[in-house]
Write a structure and sequence with these properties.
9 strands; alpha/beta; 3 helices; 60s Ribosomal Protein L30, Chain: A; 154 residues; five-stranded mixed sheet
Length: 154
């Protein structure tokens, strides 16, 4: 990963976690030319979910934002693996996110701001992206948030 990205994270007291391995029959990322597609990442650290539950029913918006931030760090950890030490420019084009929430919860976009804010923190202007956010009734391992990303490598 670009040293400036790691320095920005370190200045905020953050570091890339150890990348997680896929839980089923898929790969963690796919590269097509200059595009890198990172599979959905959950708020896992050292193999264990750090947040579990339903937003709006036991999980606050602030906790869900922190979970989304950890998801985004896990996305960047996959980007780091994909780069294999290449000092390429990394630009986030799109994030997609799912929020496990109650049926009447309507602030999914606020939850995913945790991931979006992390991308801008880490990548600067190259972290500004398009985004899709959706609510759902279930996510793997009972986590409240999952985030995927599309990046341009140059």
């Amino acid at each position: 990963m670009n040293g400036a990205i790691l320095a920005r994270l370190a200045a905020a007291g953050l570091a890339l976690p150890r990348p997680t391995m896929p839980a089923a029959n898929y790969v963690p990322f796919t590269r097509a030319g200059p595009l890198l597609f990172v599979a959905g990442q959950t708020p896992v650290q050292d193999g264990e979910p750090q947040y579990c539950g339903i937003v709006g029913e036991g999980i606050t918006i602030e906790e869900a934002q922190a979970a989304a931030r950890l998801c985004a760090l896990n996305v960047l950890a996959q980007v780091d693996v994909a780069l294999k030490g290449e000092p390429l420019r990394v630009r986030c084009l799109r994030l997609g996110g799912f929020v496990r929430c109650t049926g009447d919860f309507i602030q999914q976009a606020r939850v995913l701001d945790g991931a979006s804010d992390l991308m801008v923190l880490a990548l600067g202007e190259d972290g500004r992206h398009a985004r899709t956010t959706a609510g759902t009734n279930a996510l793997p391992r009972g986590v409240p948030v999952e985030v995927e990303g599309v990046f341009e490598l140059a």
